[in-house]
Write a structure and sequence with these properties.
- The complex is a heterodimer of chains A (416) and B (260).
- Chain A is mainly beta.
- Chain A has a single domain, classed as 3 Solenoid (Pectate Lyase C-like), CATH 2.160.20.10.
- Chain A is built from four helices and 39 strands.
- Chain A starts with a helix and ends in a 21-residue tail after the last helix.
- Chain B has one domain.
- By secondary structure, chain B is mainly alpha-helical.
- Classes of the chains: A mainly beta (416), B mainly alpha (260).
- The interface between A and B is medium-sized, with 28 and 37 residues.
């Protein structure tokens, strides 16, 4: 009994000690106990709260090593790195950074200077951070269980070589990236060897390369994001089991632009997305077992371009509306399937009124087949001769792949 | 020359064909805009019409006018007037009257549907300018044909054949050539092929200003530099001017020497 009592007292004492020690450190430019963030961090202990009052702090490489801190700025808290290095360098668990503006990160061709660099950090929260003139924005390596919320990141780069990525994950797991706005970087969000991440409700626009980029990353979900006017909207490469739901891919328009670039992808799901005004809506290359359902392709150059080595790509209940080419296809049909889609250029009829056209639709027109074989033939786009040829091919198909048909084209646009 | 031009122009302005041509474009544009309020979509549809119809009407009208006014021409040649100015005056009279029909026929409906407040003004102007250029080119070609053929039937036949060749057959041959030589680098060949046909040239010029140009640039570096920059636009425009100048020059030379 006494041992138990002693133990309880000890426990209580420990708890008491801890709560006494958890103090709040105020940092301001003048007039507080600290005028340097680094100094405050050095003297703080795990569990402490650091409040950075408003003002401009000319600091760089602020290092937090194995301390669980809660750091928050207020409106007007600006850290000006002044092109000298990193903003924060963190290796800690249970760390929170909030409400800070970080400016002018050093650009380098050899090192990845970031506004926030997290290494082996677990359970972190990065929230309401505004990064301007970023080289890399938020760089996270070998970390787990973090949240990146409501941040605004923008760069000023002009070429792919002298810009970094806004949010860059490397070897990280279970990170939630939500409500961020990223622009004018190389990649908006880049995930390399990142698994079980959730990317939701972000806006990624005007980036030089990709809005969102996956490399060797499995089991990730991205939903409700907006990818606007990037080199390519989203690139998913060498990854498995990615879910892409309810995203908007818009105006990824230029000579090498894609809305969505898929390369060596297995078992993905692409649902309820909108592809509008892209040079190529989806570029499909070496992908297997992918379901494309309830997507809308509107006004793209190519809605879908399928290159070789694809098996079991199922396109059902999609809307193909006014694209220059609905489909460009190379290689054998394999087990890929196009069924029950709505095609705006379908002119068949539905006598039994079951909503499904009685005449199969051939999405590959002769001209798109020719352009595929001889890309230079694109100069004849919209010429009268091409219209005549396409029409005669539609009446009696000779060249276009025989089994590449939608046998149940829908008469009405799909709504979801 | 300007006096002849004026007479030809007034003569045509009184002719009902100019009005029919004008009313056709007016009606077409109104219907297009009525069915689909989207100006840029209407411009794309009109592009197809302009590229086919303008050359056709230009050729037929040019040949027709030449043969119809042969008596008047003979009368004029009895007067102390330079021959070149007779023919050039007539040619410019026809081309101007057709251009004006086109200009107002398309312009009035679009202006009424709020063209000047929209972002596609430039595209529309390009469409109009290429339309006018095509009128001048094809009327000049028609005049050349008529000058070289006294036989009306032959003249008409050649004129229609010329239109058919440039509007349809040329593209067909071109496509066959592209497919046959697909192993070779074709970028420059295809660009030059486009420049040598005024209809293709006009089409390229319009497409360049519409968004689809990115799709063309996708093909390769040569296309990219041509279609994605002002270079392509300037070259196409210069070629259109050359396409007007050469036939007009021939009218001038032939009419100087020709024995009537």
């Amino acid at each position: 009994m006494t041992t138990l009592n002693h133990f309880l007292i000890l426990l209580l004492a420990l708890f008491f000690c801890h709560s006494v020690n958890a103090k709040t450190l105020n940092i301001c430019v003048t007039g507080c106990s600290y005028n340097s963030i680094q100094k405050a961090v050095d003297e703080a202990e795990s569990g402490d709260t650091l409040i950075i009052k408003k003002g401009v702090y000319k600091e760089f490489d602020i290092t937090i090593y194995k301390k669980s801190l809660y750091i928050s700025g207020e409106k007007g808290t600006i850290i000006d790195v002044d092109n000298k290095g990193y903003g924060f360098r963190v290796e800690a668990t249970d760390i929170t950074l909030k409400n800070i503006t970080i400016k002018n990160i050093l650009m380098s061709y050899t090192k990845e200077y970031a506004a926030l660099f997290l290494f082996k950090s677990y359970d972190f929260v990065l929230e309401n951070i505004k990064i301007e003139g970023a080289f890399f924005g938020i760089l996270i390596q070998k970390s787990k269980d973090g949240k990146i919320l409501n941040n605004i990141i923008s760069g000023e780069g002009t070429t792919e070589a002298n810009t970094g990525n806004a949010i860059h994950l490397w070897h990280s797991e279970r990170i939630v990236i939500q409500n961020n706005k990223v622009q004018k970087m190389r990649d908006g969000i880049y995930i390399e060897f990142g698994n079980f991440c959730i990317i939701n409700n972000n806006v990624s626009k005007n980036n030089l390369r990709y809005g969102l980029h996956f490399m060797f990353s499995n089991d990730n979900v991205y939903t409700n994001n907006m990818f606007n006017n990037n080199g390519a909207g989203v690139a998913v490469m060498f990854s498995k089991k990615i879910k892409m739901i309810n995203n908007t891919f818009k105006k990824n328009w230029g000579p090498t632009s894609y809305g969505l670039l898929l390369k060596e992808i297995n078992d993905a799901e692409i649902k309820n997305n909108l592809f509008e005004d892209n040079t190529i809506g989806i570029n499909v290359d070496g992908t297997n077992r992918i379901n494309y359902t309830e997507n809308t392709f509107y006004n793209n150059g190519y809605a879908v371009k399928v290159l070789g080595a694809c098996y079991t790509n199922i396109f059902t209940h999609n809307n193909f509306l006014h694209n220059t080419f609905d489909l460009s296809y190379s290689g054998a049909l394999n087990s890929n399937k196009f069924e029950e889609n709505y095609w705006s250029s379908y002119v068949g009829y539905d006598l039994d009124k079951n909503g499904i056209g009685d005449v199969p639709y051939r999405p590959v027109k002769l001209y798109s087949y020719l352009v595929n074989r001889t890309p230079e033939a694109i100069v004849l786009l919209r010429s009268l001769f091409i219209d005549i040829v396409d029409f005669s091919e539609k009446v009696s198909p000779v060249f276009t792949p025989e089994n590449l048909v939608d046998n149940k084209p829908l008469m009405k646009k799909i709504e979801w | 020359m300007f006096k002849i031009l004026k007479y030809s122009f007034y003569d045509l302005a009184r002719s009902r064909w100019s009005y029919i041509y004008f009313l056709f474009y007016l009606l077409l544009s109104f219907v297009l805009l009525f069915l689909n309020n989207d100006l840029s979509k209407a411009i794309i549809t009109l592009m197809n019409v302009v590229l086919i119809l303008v050359p056709l009407i230009g050729t037929i009208f040019g040949v027709m006018y030449y043969y119809n006014s042969q008596e008047f021409t003979t009368l004029l040649m009895a007067q102390p007037i330079k021959r070149q100015s007779i023919f050039l005056g007539q040619y410019f009279g026809v081309a101007c009257s057709l251009s004006i029909s086109l200009f107002f026929g398309l312009g009035i409906p679009f202006a009424m549907y709020g063209l000047f407040q929209s972002a596609v003004v430039l595209n529309f102007i390009i469409l109009l300018v290429t339309g006018v250029f095509l009128t001048f080119i094809f009327t000049a070609l028609a005049y050349n044909i008529a000058l070289s053929n006294l036989n009306k039937i032959k003249g008409f036949g050649y004129a229609i054949l010329l239109w058919l060749f440039l509007a349809v057959i040329y593209d067909g041959l071109f496509l066959i050539a592209l497919v046959m030589f697909q192993e070779y680098p074709l970028d420059n060949f295809s660009l030059i092929g486009m420049l040598l046909n005024p209809i293709d040239l006009a089409r390229t010029l319009i497409i360049l200003k519409l968004d689809i140009s990115a799709l063309l640039g996708y093909t390769g570096a040569v296309f990219k530099s041509f279609f994605d920059t002002n270079k392509g636009f300037i070259i196409s425009f210069l070629m259109l001017i050359i396409w007007v100048l050469l036939p007009v020059l021939r009218i001038y030379l032939v009419s100087k020497k020709k024995d009537f």
